Amino acid sequence: MSKVWAIARREFLVTVTRKGYLFTLFGLPLIMIGGLLAASLLSRETFRDSQANQGPAGVVDRARVLDFSLQAATGPTVSTSPLPAPGAGVHSRLVAYDDLDQALADLGTGDLSAVFLLEAGYLQSGDIVVYAAEKGIFSQLNQTGRRQLSALLRASLASGRLEEDAVARILTPGRFKEMQVSKQGRIRPEGNLLKRVGRFLGPFIMFFLLTISIFMSSGYLLQGIAEEKQNRVIEILLSSVTPTQLLMGKMMGLGAAGLLQVVFYVVLLVLPASLILTLMTLSLGQILLSLMYVVLGYLLFAGLMAGTGLLGNTSQESQQLSVIWTMTSMIPMFLVASLMQQPHSWLARSFSFFPLTAPVTMLLRLSTDEVPLLDVLISTAVLVLGIVLAVKGASRLFRTASLMVGKRPRLGEIYRWLKEA
Amino acid sequence: MVAPNPVISVQDVSKSFRSVVAVDGASFEIDSGEIFGLLGPNGAGKTTLIRLILDLIRPDAGSIRIQGQPVSETHKDRIGYLPEERGLYFRQKVMAVLEYLGSLKGVPIERVRRNARDWLQRLEIDDLRSRPVQELSKGNQQKVQFIATVVSDPDILILDEPFTGLDPINVHLLVRSIRELAAEGKTVVLSVHQMALVESLCRRVFMINRGRQVLYGDLEEIQSRYSEPSFLVRSGADYQACELIDRFAGHNAAATVHLKQGVEPARFLRWLVESGAEVESFQRARTPLDEIFIRVVRDSS
Fold first, then answer.
1. In angstroms, rounded to a whole number, what is the distance separating the alpha carbons of residues A292 and A29?
2. Which of B73, B81, B106 lies closest to A236 in CB terms?
C-alpha cells in the first residue's frame, strides 16, 4: 500500500503544479463567467441598437381614422411633427404626412424607415400599404412601426365608441405577473431576467465544469503514462511495483487532483454564486448523484486512457488514439439542446445506459431534472462493469504494451496482448 | 556448471514473441556476491533475459528462481535495475527523482535520502542534486540513473550498459563503485559491449546469440579454451635463432611467440634463460575476449 501511496502522492503533486492544471482551475471558470456576461451584455446592446437604428415611419391617412391626439395612450412613440426633432431617437416613431409623394421622397433620403398608406376605403378593406426601402431578404419592413400604427389604430377606432376601461383593455389586454411553483409546492414570484437565466445557467455551468474535470484528470493520466513510456521510466517503475499498484496509484493521485478541482469549483464558485444569485435549483440528491457520476466517469475514462497511453509510441500518438473515447463520450454534448429539453426521452435514456456516454448524459439530465431511480441504477451498473473491464485491460497492457516500442500496434495485436498477459 | 550458492537460477527458459524466438532454452546460475557478465550482440536476447529475471515478462517455458524462490513481485524490492534505455523524469530535480524511485522499493524515505546524498558524493555530482535532470550532461544523467539503481541498497544489481555516455574518468569511477558493491556482497549482473571491462570486472560470463546460449562459464577457462599455445615474451633474445619456435610476431623486446607442436613451455623458458638474454616477462598469451566474442558470434550465426 505504501507504494501505491508513494505513486499517488507524486502524481498528485506533479499534476497540481502543472501550468495546464492551474489554468483550468482558476482560468476556465473566469473565462466562462466572463464569456457569459459579455455575451448577455452584447446581445442586449445589439437588441437596443437595432431598435434605436430604426428611423421614424411616415403615415398618410386618407381614410381619416387616426386620432393623433391619442398618441400618449399608445405610448410615447408618436409624433405629429413632419420630421422628428434632432436627437428624438426612439420616441419619434410615427410621423403624419398629408402628401404621399413628400413621404416617399423622405423615405428615399433615408429620413423615414417606412411609409404607411391608409386608403379612403381602409375601414371596409383593412388594407394598409407599406412602402420600405430595399434592404435585402432579412429586412423586417419596420415591425416596430407596424406595432405602433396598430396600437394607434385600435385607440382611434375604439375611442368614443366604447367605455374608457374597455378601451384601456383593448390597448393592453393584460399585465402578466408570473409565479413559480417548485416541486415542493412553494410559490414565489418569477424573478428578473438575470435570475431566470441564472437558474438555467447555474446547473449548466456546474455540469460543464464537472464534465471538464472528468476529462482533464483522465487526460493527465493518459499524458503521464504515455510520457513515462516514451522516456522509458515505465520499465524502471515496473521493476519496482506491480502493474496494478502503478495503475491504482496513478488513478488515486490524479483522481485526487480532479476532486480538488471539483471541490474548488463547488465551494468557491458555485455555492457562493447560488447564494447570491439564486443560481442553483438543484436538490441535494441531484448534486450528490452528479458527484457520484463524476467519480464513476473518472474511473472509467482513467482506465481507458491508461490503456490508450500505453499503445502509442509518443504522448502525441496516444492522445490521437484517445480521441475515440473522448469523441464518443461527447456525443451527448452535440445533442445538448434536445437532451435538456427532453431529459427523459428514449435518446437520453439510451445514452444513459451506454458506459461511454453515461457519465456526460447523466450529468446533463441531473442538471435539468430529477432522474428516475431505475435509470440511475442501470447506468451505475453499466458504468461499474465498464470500469472493471477498462481497469483490468489497462493492467494487462502494462505487462505487454508498456515495453513495446516501434510502430503503432494493430487491433489484432492489442487483442493478443490483452489475452497473453 | 553449478554455482555454489546461486542467487539467480535460470533453467531451460524460453520466450517467443509471435514467430520470433527471443530466448531459447537458456540455463545459468549466478552466485552471491559475484559480478556476472551477460554478453551477446545487439538483438541477441539479453534484454529479454533481463526482463524475464525481473518478472516484467513471463517465460513460455522453464523456470527462474531468485534466492531459491520462484521469481515473483516480492523480489522486486531486492533488485536494482539499470535499463539500457535511460529512464528518468527529465523535468524533475535530481533528488526528487532519486527519492521517488528509491521509495518505490519499499525503503523508508529517510534512508533513501541518506543513501542518495552518499552516492551523489561518491560519484562527485553532489552539487547537482537540486538541478532538473534535463539540465545535466548525458554523462551526469547516466550517473543519476546508476544512483537510482543503488539508492534503495538492493542485494542484486542488474546493470544493462551502465557505462554508456561516460568519459574514461567516469568509467573508472563507476568500475570502482561496482567493485565496491560486489565487495560488500551484492550480486551484480553486468551487460556491456566493452569486452575489456568484462575482462577486468567479471569472473564468469554467459553469452547468448540469436536467443541461444553460446558461452557459459569461468572467463579464464573460456579464454584458455580459445587460446593457442602462445606466449607474450619481453626479452632481448634472438627468437630467429630458436628452433623451438614455429613463428613469432612483434620485435624482440615484446613478442607473441608460437611454439612448435609438442614443445613444452618449460623447454622454451630454459632456452630463454640459457641464451643469456635478460627476460623481463614471460606469460601465456590469452585470446582477448573481443576476439572470442567475434569468433563465437560468427560461428553460431
1. 22
2. B81
The count of CB pairs under 8 A between chains A and B is 56
- Contacts of residue A128, Cβ cutoff 8 Å, sequence gap at least 6: A116, A117, A118, A122, A149
A302-321 pLDDT, tens per residue?
Answer: 888 888 888 877 777 888 88
Sign of the dihedral through C-alpha B122, B128, B133, B136: negative
CB B300 within 8 A of CB B210: yes
Render A288-344 in DSSP notation, one character per residue. Answer: HHHHHHHHHHHHHHHHHHHHHHHHSSSHHHHHHHHHHHHHHHTHHHHTHHHHHHSTT
Query: Which one of B83, B90, B105 has the shortest CB-CB distance to A240?
Result: B105
Complex prediction ipTM: 0.82
Mean pLDDT, to the nearest integer, of B120-130? Answer: 93
- Contact yes or no for B87 and A232 at CB 8 A: yes
Q: Output the CA torsion sign for B170, B171, B176, B179.
A: positive
Name the residue among A322, A136, A346, A130 with its Cα closest to residue A221.
Answer: A322
Collapsing DSSP to helix, strand or coil, A75 comes out as: coil
Contact B104 A241 (CB under 8 A): yes
Per-residue pLDDT reduced to its tens digit, A325-380: 888 888 888 888 888 888 888 888 999 999 999 988 998 888 877 888 999 999 99
Q: What is the mean pLDDT of chain B?
A: 89
Identity of the amino acid at A92 = S
Region A176-186: what's the mean pLDDT?
72
C-alpha dihedral sign at A393, A395, A396, A400: positive
3-state helix/strand/coil string of chain B? CCCCCEEEEEEEEEEEECCEEEEEEEEEEEECCCEEEEECCCCCCHHHHHHHHCCCCCCCEEEEEECCEECCHHHHHHEEEECCCCCCCCCCEHHHHHHHHHHCCCCCHHHHHHHHHHHHHHCCCHHHCCCEHHHCCHHHHHHHHHHHHHCCCCCEEEEECCCCCCCHHHHHHHHHHHHHHHHCCCEEEEECCCHHHHHHHCCEEEEEECCEEEEEEEHHHHHHHHCCCEEEEEECCCHHHCCCEEEEEEECCEEEEEECCCCCHHHHHHHHHHCCCCEEEEEECCCCHHHHHHHHHHHHC
Across the interface, do B87 and A7 touch by the CB < 8 Å criterion?
Answer: no
Of the listed ranges A17-31, A59-73, A81-95, the one predicted with least confidence:
A81-95
Q: How far is CA A165 from CA A16, A161, A169, A181, A218, in A?
A: 68, 12, 6, 32, 67
pLDDT at residue B182 greater than cutoff 90:
yes
- Give the gap in angstroms from C-alpha A322 to the nearest C-alpha of chain B: 23
Which has more pLDDT, A28 or A16? A16
What does the pLDDT look like over A195-239, one tens digit per residue?
666 666 667 777 777 788 888 888 888 888 888 887 788 889 989
Q: Which amino acid is at B174?
A: L
Placement of cell 543513501 in the chain:
B115
Q: Residue window 89-128, chain B: list those with CB within 8 Å of chain A.
A: 89-90, 92, 100-101, 103-106
The helix/strand/coil state of A189 is strand
Residue B229 in contact with partner chain A when CB distance is under 8 A = no
B215 pLDDT above the threshold of 50: yes
Q: How far apart are CA B155 and CA B147, in angstroms?
A: 14
Specify whether the CB–CB gap between B41 and B25 falls below 8 A.
no
Each as own residue / partner, the long-range contacts of residues B66-71 (CB below 8 Å, 24 or more positions apart, any chain) are B66/B7, B66/B8, B66/B9, B66/B156, B67/B7, B67/B155, B68/B9
pLDDT digits (tens, 9 = 90+) for A21-51: 888 888 877 887 788 788 777 766 666 655 5
